[in-house]
Amino acid sequence: MNELIKGIKELNKAIRYKLSKKYCPNQAPMSPSVVEILEKQVVLNDSLIKQLANVEYNRKVIKVPQFVAEYLKKGNEDEQIAALIYQKFLGVMNTMENGDLKEWLRGQSFETLLALKIGYEVEEEPKYYIKVGDKLYFKNWGEDGTCPVFEIDDVPGGVTGITAVDLQEAEMTAGIIGGTVEEVGQSWIKM
Predict the structure, then answer these.
(1) Do the Cβ atoms of 128 and 183 come closer than 8 Å?
(2) How far is CA 169 from CA 123, 172, 181, in A?
(3) What is the pLDDT of residue 191?
(4) Which of 49-53, 79-83, 186-190 has the lowest mean pLDDT?
(5) Are residues 66 and 112 both part of a single domain?
(6) What is Dmax (Cα atoms) for the chain?
(7) What InterPro entries does the entry give (predicted)?
(8) Of the spans 2-11, 39-48, 58-67, 170-179, which averages the highest pLDDT?
């Protein structure tokens, strides 16, 4: 975090230097709009430095959804984390595309975002199975890919071949075969 604060301070130093030269006799003057933008950036950066300096984050690895991990892997991970922190600081309003990442970011603290730098784990997406009636469980689509194959659960814990799938696939399959979707507990996963 100290490196992040140091980088923002260096950026402000460069902006302040540029602002100090705005009326230099040997150069063309900066337009008032450029001066205003740079002055606002300095204030924004100073505020961000104060917030980051006040953040007490612990050194624990956090869990993130798959889509966050994919975003972080799109480019330089440090830059992606810095972009998330900056978006959070700006209030995640107009500059970020709507979607899961934006919604996730709205619910995160600065502490969580800073902890990404330390490391993160990808949350396991929940898995689901499809149940038909009291004892039938969808197993797969059979050899021809059109006929559903079921397994009967006569003995509690006796079912071994059930395929756990994501929610979208489970809902689609349940709709086709007239079943219900139930979340798989850790003891159920037999993939």
Answers:
(1) yes
(2) 19, 5, 10
(3) 38
(4) 186-190
(5) yes
(6) 91
(7) DUF1642
(8) 170-179
Report d(CA 14, CA 66) in Å as an integer: 37
What is the span of the domain harbouring residue 142?
A: 128-183
In a domain, 191, yes or no: no
For residue 167, which phi and psi values (nearest 5 degrees)?
Answer: -60, -45
The model carries a pTM of: 0.48
Q: Please, are residues 18 and 96 in contact by the beta-carbon 8 Å criterion? A: no
Beta bridge partners, 129, equal: 182
Q: Is residue 99 part of a domain?
A: yes
DSSP the chain: -HHHHHHHHHHHHHHHHHHHTTT-TTSPPPPHHHHHHHHHHHHHHHHHHHHHHH------PEEE-HHHHHHHHTS-HHHHHHHHHHHHHHTS-TTS-SSHHHHHHHT--HHHHHHHHH-EEEPPPP-EEEEETTTEEEEE-TTTSSS-EEEE--STT----PPPB-HHHHHHHHHHHT-EEEEPPTTT---
Report residue 98 as tokens: 């709507």
Domains identified in the chain, total number:
3
